[in-house]
Amino acid sequence: MVKKEILFLCASSMAVMLGFGIVGPVLPQYIAAFGVTYTIAGLAISVFPLARMIFNFPAGILTDRMGRRRPLLIGITVVTIAALLCGLARNIYEFIAFRFLYGAGTSMFIIVANVLIADIAPAMERGKYLSYYQGTFRFGSIFGPAIGGLVAEAAGLKVPFFFLAFLGSISLLLTFFIIKEEKKITPSLPKHPIRLTALLKFMFDRRLIAVELTQMVSFITMSSIRTTMVPFYGVDFLKLPLSAIGTILSIGALISFPILMLISNVVDRIKRNVMIAFGFLILAASVYSYTIVRNFEGMLIATVCLSVAQVLINPSKVAIIGDITTSETRGFAMGAFRTAGDIGFFVGPALAGYLTDNITVLFPFYVVTILCLLSSIIAFYALQSSRLKKIVKIDM
User: Fold this and answer.
1) pLDDT for position 366
2) CATH architecture, domain 193-396
């Protein structure tokens, strides 16, 4: 039976991620309405992952020091207020500042939510519960954009941000009244400064490094291929209409949702390293298949396989963080893990653009295919003992 706290945490996350999906399709048009250059518009978009990169580590450390509930409430509160302020922004510079604040809030919320589920879930069912949680993200990516487009057309470009703030307030209420702090996972403040040798030993644990590398490659793949190259390659080279690209991406996300729910029942019965390695093999094949397809059907099949590979990989990656850490170090490790992903999210589109401009449009697909194959090998060999030993506790 799923614990009540996890169900409500998933519901809270679903509200936030649905709001995030609602804002997505109107963001470029909203920024363009300020009458800014492409450079400033790019800054307004990239400031979100930049804020997450900056705040991931502090958020992880904060949750190790303060417990889980207070940082979770702080994160949701910041998200709600920042969303409201984005809708009220009078110029692009205010919007950039509020968008940065929004990124900081989501960083804290996502990290603490992942850590809290890892804390609450029984060790042998951690992957299953994290799969449920990952499903809330898929829900937002499936239904959010369609809702956001309809809301913007009916009521204006500002209204989706207000809708996001409304959903954030619902999430805040759910968290405040349902999620309680567990005394056993409330670390006390350290009495001594951080020991550098212990911190370095923690940061350079091979399993932590391996799972961070796989997280980075996973985000590079999604940001460079799914978000950047699929629309660009499909429209400019295969001459598919934009509506077809939107259909391809939506169907890929839609099909992956029930598969994620099915995988949740077996993810804890299969070794983490095997699940991740197998997922990256499928991911590599999916990315490479884009170079040989020439029509809508081929692009659709490749994108569905890409989405399925992600749902094979993601729950096991997050579960490994719970497997190899204690409650005292879990927040810091989750911060490092999320930072690795956000670096990939930040680097991916620029890498794809550079390779396309300077070599060929197919070269980004080749490079990412190789990265996925290397990640499969790293995951299989470096994560074999993920359940055998916890990372040493450090004073933080």
Assistant:
1) 95
2) Up-down Bundle (1.20)
Structure tokens at 147: 């809702």
The pTM for the full model equals 0.70
Residues 6+ apart with CB under 8 A from 306: 221, 225, 226, 252, 283, 286, 287
Half-sphere exposure of 162 (CA within 13 A, CB side): 9
Please tell me the distance from the alpha carbon of residue 227 to that of residue 20, in angstroms, as a whole number. 16
- 75-88 pLDDT, tens digit each: 999 999 999 999 99
pLDDT at 386: 47
pLDDT score, position 345:
81
84-89: long-range contacts, CB 8 A cutoff, minimum separation 24: 84/161, 84/162, 84/165, 86/161, 87/158, 87/159, 87/160, 87/161, 87/162, 87/165, 88/158
| Encoded amino acid at 24, one letter | G
Domain boundaries, the chain: 1-189, 193-396
Burial 214-246 (b: 16+ CB within 10 A, else e): bbbbbbbbbbbbbbbbbbbbbeeebebeeebbe
Cα 76 to Cα 392: distance, rounded to the nearest angstrom: 31
Choices 1.10.760.10, 1.10.10.10, 1.20.1250.20, 1.10.540.10: CATH for 1-189: 1.20.1250.20
| pLDDT at 216 (0 to 100) | 92
pLDDT of residue 140: 67
Q: Which two tokens stand for residue 239?
A: 């001459």
Report whether 267 contacts 131 (CB < 8 A). Answer: yes
Q: Which two tokens stand for residue 333?
A: 């490790």
pLDDT at 284 over 80: yes
pLDDT in tens, 244-283: 776 777 777 778 777 777 776 666 677 888 888 999 999 9
Nearest to 321 by CA among 310, 343, 337, 340: 337
How long is the chain? 396
Between the two ends of the chain, the Cα-to-Cα distance in Å is 35
